[in-house]
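Changelog entry

Holo records now carry the ligand SMILES as an explicit input line rather than a separate metadata file. Below, a converted record for thiamine diphosphate, shown in the new format.
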Amino acid sequence: MKKILTGNEAIARGAYEAGCTIAAAYPGTPSTEILENMAKYQEIYTEWSTNEKVAVELACGASIGGARTLAAMKHVGLNVAADPLFTIAYEGVNGGLVIVTADDPGMHSSQNEQDNRRYAPFAKVAMIEPADSQECKDFMKHAFEVSEIFDTPVLFRLTTRVCHSKGLVELGERTEVGVKDYQKDIKKYVMIPAHSRVRHYQVEERLNRLREYSNNCPLNRIEWGDKKIGIVTSGISYSHAKEVFGDSVSYLKIGFSFPLPDKMIKKFAKAVDKLYVIEENEPYLEDFIRTLGIECLGKEYIPCCEELSPEIIRKAFLPEKDKKVYDSEIKAPSRPPVLCPGCPHRGIYYAVSKYKDVVAVGDIGCYTLGMMPPLSVTDIVICMGAGISASLGFKRASMKGGRDEKIFGFIGDSTFFHSGITGLIDAVYNKTPAVFVILDNSITAMTGHQENPGTGKTLMGEAAPVIDIESIVKAVGIKAEDIRVVDPYNLEMTQAAVKDAHEAQEPFVIITKQPCALIKEVQKKRANIYCSINEEKCTKCKACIKTGCPAIAFKNGQIVIDRSMCNGCTLCAQVCKFDAVEKVGE
Amino acid sequence: MTKSILLVGVGGQGIILASKILSEGLLKLGYDVKMSEIHGMAQRGGSVTTQIRFGEKVYSPCVGSGEADVLAAFEKVEAVRWLHQLKEGGTLLVNDYEIYSLPVLIGQEKYPEGIIKELKSRVENVKSFDAGKIAVELGNIKTQNIVILGALIKALRLDTLDWADVMKEYIPPRLLDLNVKALAAGMEI
Ligand SMILES: Cc1ncc(C[n+]2csc(CCOP(=O)(O)OP(=O)(O)O)c2C)c(N)n1
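Structure line, unchanged by the conversion:
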């Protein structure tokens, strides 16, 4: 049977058919739907782990315990999980272990454009790269086999276009492989120096065997066409190249991309007149080909920044004579992402925006948008967890520099569990007088509403204990008098907490508690509540518009609130000095 | 010949659902189909696009400058933003509907006037309509996306397929009837 599936759905299907029994992940675009789809299969234990390091370590344990296991994450997630990756590379596996990394060329929703193909040679693990949904499924089955035959974790490398594009996939049946027995073997599974030294030799020897395999592996294939031009490519770049050159050239299509097939590349290069290397982002293939002493055309034609497309390839290699492109005198106004109407993050940012001496270190999540005008609060964003830890450093620099800025670090609930707690402990231990705002909207919102340790539910839909953020904050040593738990829909309460925080001389925590406005139950509950403008009272001072709520507009000389967007959070009513905003419904 | 379609609009307008239904229908018609959607940050009120390519054999899911046979804009500023993707002689479907972005709402930027007129003066094949009004008349503004889908299906001359049967898989039974009507209304524009 054929079905139209996204790459992510096809990966879930492939792991299922391969007999995978355990899967763990932390959400992150474009990888999130892999686990969401795996959770639909009863045969597989799936979980949202607290972060990527936990997911990969769990996967290591599960593999050693004998289960075919998958861990999935976005590209930056592998940075968080790099520590276990580099050592499980030495230990090898028992049940097959596949680690999926989903890169984001073009940074559709990421903070950097790192090319994780570089991880495979660095960690010395096998790597597989599919080009479309069908290959996602087929190669996943292959990956589990390679993992077990060669005793290696396999890095399964995707990109946004592969994850989020749909194509036809031929479905198969699940092969039940069960869970292998576990045999104690400390020389393999306890990495003390004496054992690791021996293992390192075995890893090098494994690489030799994998290299041999790569030269004969069906995932690497040559498609002969005209031999004037030969193209070496992999992943989505293959699809783009094929779109541009069709059958008019020869291709070496690489699906097993570490170790690279040296003999195959040499043979291919020899047979063609000119060698093109078409790849997105880093010159991963090109660098290797050059080490073989082979000349090729690559990054001097195709930029390493941004997402690749047929258009870029065409411009690089087959420049067309002026093609007509429609244009317009009218300039489209920008449409950046914004905090939604009724977003509980708005109130606290509004309150903090009134203090001009605040330096705000944000973090990653919907609340990153606290940087956007008109709130314009956030000054710095780096990576998950840095909302707290980078605040500590900035505060130290500010103190050493004799400046008197107030430092506010912002972090979401999911991000706090992910990597915020360690930073907070550091703050208490080292007595760093900064303010930490934990924005608890009871969900991992940015990535599309995943459960987390604070939501009371697991990925598999079971009820779970709610890990209470306030208790954690107390337990790590923030004094009770330095903690405020506020409802961010209540502006007065929120402003009072911000005022106390602003005056504090020791580590201080504000927890804002109000669920994301897009949660289904919340939407249902608030469906008939909204705000409306009393035109007689409205002076058009636009104070309400300065909250940055996209439901409020100044149109035809009037302030209007779009009833279909408004959820009646009443922040606009609370900032109105003329009582001109009325709440309707309960 | 492979055909390329670009759907553009604003997060929350139901573009992804419309694209899914269209892809499924194309599949039923025996085409090879690739569809690509970009979500993430874009969902939060930002500009959203999906790309659909179909034909005998499709490799890349991506549509570039001057490559879209049909550009379907769910919001009119988005038609302007993505106009350069339309192929010479291609068809532009534009929903005469305004969604102000935040920079417009807070008065930093202006929502342009005369968009439809400008588009018609630039592009030979333009069809503009008010899908929101049609949807409201049918009883639910939320079917706006399906009205536009209807217009798109008509423009692609794919209206011979039983689209109600395709929609069944994507739309809950109690809303199916309404959406079938919306699709039909869109085809009649
Ligand atoms: C290491 C890493 N993993 C995953 C992500 C993807 N990601 C970005 S924001 C986010 C969720 C944030 O959730 P939360 O902190 O609860 O904030 P909210 O979006 O709900 O406001 C995730 C998982 C990332 N950027 N970096």
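Spot-checked after migration. The radius of gyration of chain B is 16 Å. The mean pLDDT of chain B is 94.
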